[in-house]
Specification:
three-stranded mixed beta sheet, disordered N terminus, 2-enoyl-CoA Hydratase, Chain A, domain 1, globular, alpha/beta, six-stranded mixed beta sheet, 14% strand, 2 domains
């Protein structure tokens, strides 16, 4: 993670960088603890659409600049949205395109490619909600996680009341949602909310290592496995196996499925084409 704690002049509030098959999306409002506003939400949504539709991209990373991943929605922006203000194009877009807000938070739109979270510091409210839409999560050891909306009399609209009980269990999720209190990175790891706890400042590097490993795998297999995981969650096993068989059979008939074993036998790296 960067140790820069202020936004550089002229930079967007979300920095989107492609390096080979990996798209890194960085929240860039460190002076506001990376709280989301209309511009951030629009730029996040556009980044997820790019990840989903660009065939050269295979995996995404979401992180935040500075010492905090994301403290949630900018409360001042909620007031502006509710007031009917239309003094900047980002707010106008949120009103005109109903997909953007919840798509940005990975509630109603999730790219067909995996997203890895690299979080440091506070992961609260909307920050903890978008976490639940990512697929693999890495956090610095001092990070804390909280779905804190209830403390402000608000409802966590980005999916936590549904996703959190499925991801960490009913009783623990109920306590987090109803008290709004934080849990530590170590506790989040014990509960399975995050995959890895690393030294502070090392989350992004670990996320990049995981992204590179995923990007080296067969893209058809990665996409089908991810789709199966998502579509069969909480589904009866017999119904889930129908999806598993359909998607798996498509992969097994692909050119990539022939290339992988052939490369193994020839002791070389596979050259996957996504076909």
């Amino acid at each position: 993670m960067s140790d820069v704690h202020s936004q550089s002049e002229g930079e967007p509030l979300v920095i989107v960088e492609a390096e080979g098959p990996v798209l890194t999306v960085t929240l860039n409002r460190p002076e506001k603890r990376n709280a989301t506003n209309a511009e951030v939400l629009c730029r996040l949504f556009d980044a997820w659409v790019r990840l989903d539709t660009d065939p050269s991209l295979r995996v995404g990373i979401l992180t935040g600049r500075g010492s905090t991943f994301c403290a949630g929605m900018d409360l001042a922006e909620i007031g502006r949205l509710n007031s009917g203000a239309a003094d900047n194009p980002w707010i106008v877009r949120l009103r005109e395109d109903t997909r953007v807000i919840f798509g940005a938070y990975l509630k109603t739109f999730r790219p067909s490619k995996p997203i890895i979270l690299a979080a440091e510091g506070y992961v609260r409210a909307g920050g903890a909600e978008i976490l639940q839409g990512t697929d693999i999560r890495v956090a610095g050891e001092s990070a804390v996680f909280g779905v804190t909306e209830v403390q402000r009399g608000l409802f966590p609209m980005a999916g936590s009341t549904v996703r959190l009980p499925r991801q960490i269990g009913y009783a623990v999720a109920a306590e987090m949602l109803l008290t709004g209190e934080d849990i530590s990175a170590q506790r989040a790891h014990q509960l399975g909310l995050i995959n890895h706890v690393v030294s502070d400042g090392a989350a992004l590097n670990r996320a990049r290592e995981i992204a590179e490993r995923i990007a080296a795998n067969g893209p058809l297999a990665v996409a089908a496995i991810l789709q199966t995981i998502r579509e069969t969650e909480a589904m009866p096993e017999t119904e889930a196996f129908a999806i598993d068989s359909r998607l798996g059979s498509q992969v097994m008939r692909s050119n990539d499925a022939a290339e992988g074993p052939r490369a193994f036998l020839e002791k070389r790296a596979p050259q996957f084409t996504g076909t």
